[in-house]
Amino acid sequence: MSSNPIILPPYINVTRKKAEIITLDVTELAGRISKKNLNAFKPGKSDLRAKQLAASDWIVKNRINNTSYIERDAQGKPYLSSADHHISISHTQNILSLIHHNQVEVSIDIEFYDRNVLKIMNRFTDNEELSVLEIANLSNPLIVIWSIKECLFKILGRQGVHFLTDLRILSCTISDLTIKTICTVKHHDIELRYMVNSMIFDPILVSYIDESPF
User: Fold this and answer.
1) I need a labelling partner for 120 at 20 to 30 A (CA). Which of 146, 148, 166, 177 fits?
2) Of the candidates 97, 93, 109, 108, which has an alpha carbon nearest to the alpha carbon of residue 4?
3) 93, 94, 98: which is closest to 109 by C-alpha?
């Protein structure tokens, strides 16, 4: 597995649309959290999952609102109990990213860039979408497509979404080392277009949505 590129204290990035992204190593952060607070997330959870939940709570209380906590709707989508902020969370192994914005619905996905998803390609993409991303000259375009569609799925917040047909990549441009894709979401009564931003910090890939659909 690739080495961990995240240097703590947590890496914080503010996007052009004023969303804040915090990325951190949950294992390292667990050393800063009291045993009492960490144990509160452990019942029925694996050690790693408890650390992920505790890290998300730590970000909320230190970066957004120290009296708020994370709740989840019927679809599992996270939201804040008492803060006027939209949030989205993603984790892969020990790395976690949280994005928040005080006005706009946001979404984030984080992956190891070398993850191999070839075996499930037919479930989420096809050669047409691969050709759209050719301009980016990527060594692993499949994981980028997967990450983009994870963002779309999260922001839609519905069940029964078919990644291959309901979520489609229409175009791609490169700007400031960011892969920008225009995507369409069609699901029952919904038809929207989103801009998804993807950045590769080898070995980490981060994709996010930080603006309203158009």
Assistant:
1) 177
2) 93
3) 98
Tell me which DSSP letter residue 141 carries.
H
SS3 sequence of 151-205: HHHHHHCCCCCCCCCCEEEEEEEEECCEEEEEEEEEECCEEEEEEEEEEEECCEE
CB 139 within 8 A of CB 119: no
What is the domain extent for residue 98? 11-110
Q: Is 214 among the domain residues?
A: no
pLDDT for the residue numbered 97: 96
Residue-wise pLDDT tens digits, 168-184: 999 999 988 899 999 99
Distances (CA, A) of 56 to 25, 52, 160: 11, 6, 27
Are 115 and 104 within one domain?
no
DSSP letter at 104 equals: S
Q: Among 78, 110, 142, where does a domain finish?
A: 110
